[in-house]
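Researcher: Quick test of sequence recovery. Tokens follow.
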């Protein structure tokens, strides 16, 4: 059985790590280079870096910042934000990213998934899906949750897998930043229909939430931000707790 992964997420705006609630009320929390180094030393399994306003503002992710972060890491490192063509991904991978994550650009141009997979390999391609649930219907969104797409979560996730993506990073916008637990019902449905790894984001507040995620949500990895950024949960303590709960972690 593969080990469950713990993944801190660095949402970047203007070169600083930020955090919000339900994708709004954003505040700065620190230098991404220092935070990345700290998480690497603490035993995080991977790191995700998302330039959260790159697509909305029509610019590319900061390649120089990616280089600085990568230089201080010894764990896999995924970068997303503003990737709309092969050369964007190529630049980020050359700067030290291990994987790239696409979201809005994949919805606008699903063929981009195929192209990235063909050029780089599926193991390098993560497709992020930010979705909101209303009246028992999950809809994928674009541009950091600003734009509705009409795409239903589960059918879009199946298409993403069929196009060759290596992983899906699902964020529940209803749960984001609330610290009330993950969207385990939706996650379990996704996990049951997919054969590729599923990373869960949105709602982490306690160690118990991670246990529930892995046991009931069936996700392969749990991603969180504020609880790590503000020292509410230490990664070594979380892994110790999960091991005692019978969950296989690295």
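Model:
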């Amino acid at each position: 059985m593969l080990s469950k992964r713990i993944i801190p997420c660095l949402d970047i705006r203007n070169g600083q790590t930020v955090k919000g609630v339900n994708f709004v009320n954003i505040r700065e929390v620190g230098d991404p280079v220092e935070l990345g180094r700290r998480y690497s030393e603490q035993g995080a399994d991977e790191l995700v870096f998302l330039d959260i306003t790159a697509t909305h503002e029509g610019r590319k992710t900061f390649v120089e910042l990616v280089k600085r972060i990568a230089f201080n890491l010894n764990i896999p490192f995924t970068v997303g934000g503003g990737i709309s063509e092969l050369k964007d991904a190529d630049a980020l991978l050359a700067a030290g990213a291990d994987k790239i994550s696409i979201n809005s650009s994949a919805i606008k141009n699903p063929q981009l998934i195929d192209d990235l997979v063909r050029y780089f390999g599926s193991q390098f391609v993560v497709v992020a899906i930010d979705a909101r649930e209303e009246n028992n219907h999950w809809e994928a969104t674009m541009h950091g949750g600003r734009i509705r797409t009409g795409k239903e979560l589960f059918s879009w996730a199946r298409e993403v897998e069929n196009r060759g993506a290596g992983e899906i990073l699902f964020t529940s916008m209803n749960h984001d930043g609330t610290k009330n637990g993950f969207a385990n019902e939706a996650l379990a449905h996704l996990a049951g229909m997919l054969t590729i790894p599923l990373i869960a984001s949105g709602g982490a507040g306690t160690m118990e939430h991670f246990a529930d995620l892995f046991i009931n949500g069936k996700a392969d990895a749990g991603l969180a931000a504020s609880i790590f950024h503000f020292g509410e949960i230490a990664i070594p303590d979380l892994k110790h707790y999960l091991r005692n709960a019978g969950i296989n972690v690295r």
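DSSP finds eleven helices and twelve strands in the chain.
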